């Protein structure tokens, strides 16, 4: 029952995290389109948009699901340590560790996505303030239109550079996550190989005992057959 509940919560978390990641990915694009649509700052850049409200709602829901999954893992840990299940302890501990790893991965992904979203929103607030100052300066002094245009171009270049840097960092983080996942798989394979290597001496010892018993039984049987043969010969000659 606990495993079923854990799997159900993990499936819900997986769907929520996918939607959460899509929301954070589309946030920056929507802000860029809004800035390109309006040539002036008559409409605020951040005006309590639905994306911000969706972010807060989904973050609360994911945190609640993570809390429930943590509670289920704690209950499974209590069950594995309880009396009456010693023969299944190894399998149960393996299952519990797998669910703990899944919970850790989901928690890490949630915090990473949330941090990226907050960083994007903070950057958008900063860029919106800078853009507003530039537009105010441009509208207030017609003599310096050329200089303002240069400022705007420079600002656009900086924004493009910032976007390229973010893409590079995202690729590096994805590569790091893949390498971490591969390292975990290699560690799991190594632990299984060590377990098999530890089991082989016990198997060899058991086979040796079986062979010794077979040899002993063969000697006993041969002795009995020999004694019977001698007795039959003595009886026949007598």
From TrEMBL:
One of its GO terms (biological process) is inter-Golgi cisterna vesicle-mediated transport. It is a single-pass type IV membrane protein. One of its GO terms (cellular component) is SNARE complex. It is found in: Golgi apparatus membrane. InterPro entries: Golgi_SNAP_su1 (IPR023601). Belongs to the GOSR1 family. Involved in transport from the ER to the Golgi apparatus as well as in intra-Golgi transport. It belongs to a super-family of proteins called t-SNAREs or soluble NSF (N-ethylmaleimide-sensitive factor) attachment protein receptor. May play a protective role against hydrogen peroxide induced cytotoxicity under glutathione depleted conditions in neuronal cells by regulating the intracellular ROS levels via inhibition of p38 MAPK (MAPK11, MAPK12, MAPK13 and MAPK14). Participates in docking and fusion stage of ER to cis-Golgi transport. This is Golgi SNAP receptor complex member 1. It comes from Daphoenositta chrysoptera.
